[in-house]
Amino acid sequence: MVSNEVLIVILLAMLVTWIPRILPFILTQNRELPPVLVRFLSFLPVTIIFALTLSSIMDEQVGRLPVFLPVESLAVLPTFWVVAKTKNILLAVMVGVVTTALLRLVF
């Protein structure tokens, strides 16, 4: 049986993760954003994907310069090619996973 404290913590965690994702939609629902802000926000998906990709292909440790992980760095190449050609994220993820698995099998 789940205690009341655990249930409260789960509900609060849900609220904390839900608010920053839903609140912007609520606040801007019936408002027009300035063109400068719209132009800035148009770059966010690209920068977020780049940051996630870069963090997954690099190994960083305190006191050392970051280094590229060879298998992951090679797997990025066919994955990006698939994204550029097909614009299909699901297919790109599948290609990335299979490429990484094959490269790990070989190396």
List keywords for this structure.
107 residues, mainly alpha, 2 domains, 2 strands, extended
Radius of gyration (Å): 20 Å
Which structural class do you get from the secondary structure elements? mainly alpha
Q: What's the overall geometry?
A: extended
How are helices and strands ordered from N to C?
HHHEEHH
- The tally of strands reads 2
Largest sheet: 2 strands, antiparallel
Q: Number of helical runs?
A: 5
The share of residues in extended strands comes to: under 5%
Show unreliable segments.
none
Query: What's the structural domain tally?
Result: 2
- Determine the mean pLDDT: 91
N-to-C CA distance: 47 Å
Order the strands across the largest sheet as they lie in space: 1-2
Helical content (DSSP H or I, runs of 4+) = over 70%
Tell me what you see in this structure.
The chain folds into two domains: 1-31; 37-106, no CATH class. Helices cover 76% and strands 4% of the residues. The chain has five helices and two strands, in the order αααββαα. The longest helix is centred in the first third of the chain and has 24 residues, at 4-27. The N and C termini lie far apart (47 Å).
Question: What is this structure, in a nutshell?
Answer:
With 107 residues, the chain is mostly helical. It contains five helices and two strands.
Structural topology:
Layout: H1 4-27, H2 35-42, H3 44-57, E1 58-59, E2 67-68, H4 70-86, H5 89-106
Antiparallel strand pairs: 1-2
Helix pairs in contact: 4-5
Transmembrane segments: 6-24, 36-57, 63-82, 89-106
Keywords: Membrane, Transmembrane, Transmembrane helix
Pfam families: AzlD
